[in-house]
Design a protein that fits this description.
217 residues; alpha/beta; 5-stranded parallel beta sheet; 12% strand
């Protein structure tokens, strides 16, 4: 497994954009930069999904309006996969909504096409090292309802947790391994801003009752 602080190995990247001119230009930029290894390019969300499932990469650069799934759905599908690439949305943002939506969907970064191309390269490097890179966002809005950021599997796990199921019982009921349960719970706790099962359960019931759920209480 490649370590996040390994700066010697090129960062494996896949690109997806429906505009052939943009895709060609991005491909040339990443091909010329020795910090990256360009693995695949595609014009559709489905093509990108198939490519990264066949040959895993560290970072994916995608357009928000990819046919036919769209960028948001592609991000949501990939975040269910334990070895999915970290995704950077590279696109236009005339109304200022895309960075917030991309973050909520599970992307690791957003770069506007109006910024210099070096910004895209540096963002991909930062994202490969585990960082999240977004323009200024009102975090209060993002955390208004953290449960909305959970995947279907994570919501089901949270509900099961509220019933007192152990990790072994969760693995049995969801037909997954104990390690996969731990992976999903780790993501679940991080998204809710909690550090324990008890806090996650308290958050769940507070949300159901309409009370203000405060992570960490």
């Amino acid at each position: 497994m490649q370590q996040l602080d390994d700066k010697s190995a090129p960062i494996a990247v896949s690109l997806a954009d429906p505009n052939p001119l943009v895709l060609s230009a991005m491909s040339e930029i990443f091909d010329r930069d020795p910090r990256f290894s360009l693995v695949a390019t595609t014009a559709t969300a489905e093509g990108f999904l198939g490519a990264v499932m066949r040959v895993p990469v560290k970072v994916g650069v995608i357009d928000w309006n990819l046919p036919a799934l769209g960028g948001q759905k592609l991000i949501e599908v990939l975040r269910e996969q334990p070895h999915a690439p970290r995704l950077v949305v590279y696109g236009d943002d005339p109304r200022g909504d895309v960075p917030r939506l991309a973050m909520l969907a599970g992307a690791a970064g957003f770069v506007a096409r109006t910024t210099p191309v070096e910004k895209l390269l540096e963002t991909c490097r930062a994202v490969a090292q585990g960082q999240m890179v977004f323009p200024f966002l009102d975090i209060r809005e993002l955390k208004a309802d953290p449960i909305q950021s959970l995947t279907r599997r994570e919501r089901a796990l949270l509900e099961a947790l509220s019933k007192g199921l152990t990790n072994r019982e969760l693995a049995r009921d969801f037909a997954i391994s104990a390690n996969t349960v731990k992976f999903h719970l780790s993501n679940l706790f991080e998204k809710l801003g909690v550090t324990s099962r008890a806090q996650a359960i308290a958050f769940y019931y507070a949300a159901r009752l309409g009370a203000p759920a405060r992570p960490g209480d």
